[in-house]
Design a protein that fits this description.
About 10% of the residues lie in helices and about 45% in strands. The chain is mainly β.
Length: about 625
């Protein structure tokens, strides 16, 4: 009998009594003893469809058993602004993770599924008939020799509540350790957090006033939260790891489970931070980001796995109490993400004049995308919000069945309605809500638009690959304020079917709000265009509707300069509107002709604002009554 079969046999013997109980529950349900709204017993599945107790998957590596751990994760992408209480558990499900050390390849088996792995890596399996997930981490070998004055947690459960390392001190979570508490590094240098254990926050409530960390942060005398939130800065610190003004910090190898808030917070001018092979899991509570790098510099994140119920990786300008520093020289690479909500990775300017520069995300594998992969944006805004030298490259995004359209819950009684998402947004550049922070993510804009100044320069999205075709890939490039400029924005080697929606001052090319289309040229520039319809085409009311809605072109140019503009058909005009032609590099010259439904229109023209034209006017290509000029 092989190892898997022996483990299955042992498991069934242990669980036989529970399975009998589950069968009794099935009979009770069939007899009508369980009614809608009743709390489901622990032995039923999350969706109530399974009466048998869900069995944890069996994992072996080269026939050696690997311990499997449970975690709570989000079952549906249903989020809301903080309602004053935590998310209900009926929106969650149980998932699993397992880890082992190896320096070689071998046979990884999960139940009856087998994979040959080449060495250390991160692997996801769908288990229990595809209803939930198992994440398996083949870690590089790790060993540790005890040294004096270290903070050591050996195998077993520990409840310190709060861990306060000193300068140069090491915190060790050994294999088999489960540590319940927050690690708070306050203006310390040379701290190291290492191990193969679990930092577990399941006992810590959001802004838990009865917790040790809350009392400690209040004792530091930090001022109340300047943003006017209900909870103080101490409340923000009720999470897994907080580095406040830290220097030369290293976090490696550990697993973090069930964070109540932003999981790892690097904040208030921290510098010289390295985060390697950290696993963030079991995030299901509101605002449970992965790694937030706030008003800090010289940060290197690599080889991590981050599964969150909000943004996975965020570089944030000053936002938290007392922050004033710029964000510079930040690298996130060779990592895997799974977003049950939120954005995979992003750069966010906030409310104070500040610069963000030298940020790179590369070789990121987004195994589950909620709605957005990569973003560069401003929220709230200031008189001088600067972002430059930002690169996203070699990004993989999975656009496969299983993704559901994210929705906001408006009240406790609101219910989630599952829908297949229409789009997967690969990239956004622009500004979100601008104004002052009022309370609980409410932003009030009581200033004129020209008070804000946002300056973006040298931002590149390069080599994005999308696996699967569940939803249409798009990119949104929008600057809606008069003093928001974007220069040297590049989208290179992106999916051929990606649609670009553009508005505003992109690449110093002012574009009318009605001009939301852009055409990538072979030299990397993005050229805005619009379609104008003459009066002879449609009656005035119809023409106005089309002018508003002609913002969904799929535009492309290949290396030879062949141009294709396709507008998906509208009920008012029927079939797709297709324009094809060629572009001559160096002369900014176009030769355009109509195809299909477009050739039947009396008058239309393609306008390229700010391109080279006669006497400084718009360069345009017009089609009149079947002729091109």
């Amino acid at each position: 009998m092989d190892a898997i079969e022996e483990l299955k046999r042992t498991r069934l013997m242990v669980l036989a009594p529970a399975l009998c109980t589950a069968s009794a529950i099935c009979l009770a349900s069939a007899a009508g003893a369980l009614h809608a709204g009743d709390k489901l017993p622990a032995s039923t599945g999350h969706d109530g469809t399974s009466c048998a107790m869900a069995l944890a998957p069996i994992v072996t590596f080269d026939s050696h058993p690997v311990k499997v751990e449970e975690m709570t994760v989000s079952a549906i992408p249903f989020n809301r602004f903080w309602p004053g209480h935590q998310r209900p558990k009926d929106q969650t499900k149980t998932a699993y993770f397992a880890s082992f050390d190896t320096d070689r390849g071998g046979l990884l088996q999960v139940d009856d599924e087998k994979r040959i792995i080449s060495g250390p890596g991160k692997h996801t399996f769908m288990v229990q008939g595809g209803r939930t997930e198992l994440h398996v981490f083949a870690d590089p070998p790790w060993s540790h020799e005890r040294v004096p004055d270290e903070i050591y947690f050996g195998p077993g459960e520990h409840f310190p509540g709060l861990i306060l390392p000193k300068d140069g001190q090491t915190v060790v979570l050994d294999k088999g350790a489960v540590v319940h508490g927050t690690i708070f590094i306050y203006r310390k240098r040379g701290v190291r957090i290492t191990g193969r254990g679990i930092l577990d926050l399941s006992d810590l409530a959001r802004a838990d006033k009865g917790s040790k960390v809350y009392a400690y942060v209040e004792s530091l005398g930090l001022p109340p939260n300047e943003l006017g939130e209900n909870e103080s800065d101490a409340g923000m610190s009720c999470t897994a790891i907080v580095a406040y003004g830290a220097r030369d910090l290293r976090i490696e190898g550990i697993t973090i489970r069930d964070s109540p808030r932003w999981t790892v917070m690097i904040r208030n001018g921290s510098r010289g931070v390295a985060i390697d092979n950290v696993k963030i899991l079991g995030s299901w509570r509101y605002n449970s980001d992965g790694i937030d790098m706030c008003s800090s510099s010289e940060i290197n994140v690599r080889n991590c796995f981050v599964r969150t119920y909000d943004d996975a990786f965020v570089v944030r300008a000053p936002f938290l109490t007392g922050e004033r520093d710029d964000c510079r020289d930040i690298l996130v690479e060779d990592s895997v993400t799974w977003n049950d909500w939120g954005c995979t990775m992003g750069v966010a300017q906030q409310r104070l004049p500040c610069a963000i520069s030298g940020v790179t995300f590369r070789r990121i594998r987004a195994e589950r995308v909620s709605s957005l992969v990569a973003t560069v944006h401003v929220t709230m805004g200031s008189t001088n919000s600067v972002i430059n030298d930002v690169l996203f490259e070699d990004i993989e995004a999975f656009n496969v069945p299983g993704r559901l359209e994210a929705a906001l819950q408006k009240s406790d009684d609101d219910r989630f309605v599952p829908k297949v998402p229409k789009t997967i947004c690969l990239a956004t550049v622009g500004s979100r809500k601008v104004g002052r922070w009022a309370n609980n993510q409410t932003i009030v804009n009581d200033l004129p638009d020209d008070w804000y100044r946002f300056d973006f320069d040298n931002i590149a999205f390069r080599r994005f690959r999308v696996h699967g075709s569940l939803s249409e890939p798009i990119a949104r490039l929008a600057t809606r304020l008069p003093r928001h400029t974007v220069r040297n924005l590049m989208l290179e080697d992106m999916p051929a079917d990606m649609r670009i929606v553009q508005q505003g001052n992109i690449n110093r090319m002012p574009v009318s709000p009605k001009c939301r289309n852009s055409l990538p040229l072979p030299d990397g520039r993005m050229v805005a265009f619009r379609i104008d319809l003459g009066k002879a085409c449609f009656p005035t009311p119809v023409r106005k509707v089309l002018a508003r809605e002609m913002n969904s072109f799929c535009a492309s140019t290949n290396a030879e300069g062949d141009v294709s503009l396709v507008w998906k058909g509208h009920p008012l005009c029927g079939d797709d509107f297709t324009v094809v032609g060629s572009y001559t590099p160096g002369k900014d010259a176009f030769s355009i002709r109509a195809e299909g439904n477009a050739s039947g229109y009396d008058i239309w023209r393609v306008v390229f604002p700010e391109m080279v034209g006669t006497s400084g006017k718009d360069a345009m290509v017009a089609h009149e009554r079947g002729r091109t000029r």
